[in-house]
Amino acid sequence: MVGTKRPLTQKQIWAVQFFLDREERLRDRVLFDLALDSNLRGCDLVKIKIGNIVSGAEIKNRSIVIPQKTGRPVQFELTAGVRASLLAWLEGRGGAIDDYAFPSRVDHMGHLARGNMRASSMSGSPPSTCEALDMGRTPFGARRR
Fold first, then answer.
1. Residue 110: left (phi > 0), alpha (psi -120 to 50), or beta?
2. How many whole angstroms separate alpha carbon 134 and alpha carbon 40?
3. Which residues 6+ apart lie within 8 Å of 143 measured at CB?
4. What are the two backbone dihedrals, phi and then psi, of residue 139, each rounded to the nearest 5 degrees?
5. pTM for the full model?
6. What tens digit of pLDDT does each residue of 30-78 get?
7. How many whole angstroms separate alpha carbon 38 and alpha carbon 56?
8. Using alpha carbons only, what angle is made at residue 75 by residues 99 and 61, rounded to the nearest 5 degrees?
9. Which residue from 13, 14, 85, 107 lies 20 to 30 Å from 20 (Cα-Cα)?
10. Which residues contact 63 (CB under 8 A, 6 or more apart)?
11. Residue among 118, 93, 89 at smallest CA distance from 106
12. Alpha carbon distances (Å) from 12 to 7, 9, 18
């Protein structure tokens, strides 16, 4: 489908949240809830830094993010449910204020993988999904058709 899609119904939102809770996918649940609260694109959500959403030992009530597309600050409220799940996620993963809240590549030791495509490919770690697609392979190493 191309163009504008219909918004999710409340029943669809509950179904997604139930599935993510049942599968114990806390990171995905937090990203989903945060997307609903903020109306940000996925690329902007994963670039949120811990300092944007945390103040001291508490999750902020409001946050400001500058989206990549518009470059204009967007302020949004973090609801109580999102703050609770964010707190659980951040307590579980730790990290400094200037770290990304939702790292997308984590090595076998649980650390954020750094470096470019060649560095990660040479280190023996599997490539990320984007790197694999750029190389014409699936994330598991098989060739795409």
1. left
2. 25
3. 136, 137
4. -60, -20
5. 0.67
6. 999 999 999 999 999 999 999 899 988 889 999 999 999 999 999 999 9
7. 22
8. 70
9. 107
10. 38, 48, 52, 53, 75, 76, 78
11. 93
12. 10, 5, 10
Here the tokens at position 116 are: 């470019």
In this structure, what is the dihedral angle of CA atoms 106, 109, 114, 115, given to the nearest 10 degrees? -110
CA 129 to chain centre: 14
Query: Which residue shows structure tokens 């990203």?
Result: 31
Residue among 60, 138, 94, 72 nearest 103 (CA): 94
Radius of gyration of the chain (CA): 17
The phi, psi pair for 65, rounded to 5°, reads -130, 145
* DSSP per-residue string spanning the chain: --SPPPPPPHHHHHHHHHHHHHTT-HHHHHHHHHHHHH---HHHHTT-BHHHHEETTEE-SEEEE--TTT-S-EEEE--HHHHHHHHHHHHHH---TTSBSS-S-B-TTSPBP-S-HHHHHHTTPPPPHHHHHHTTB-TTSPBP-
Confidence tier at 93 by pLDDT (50, 70, 90)? confident
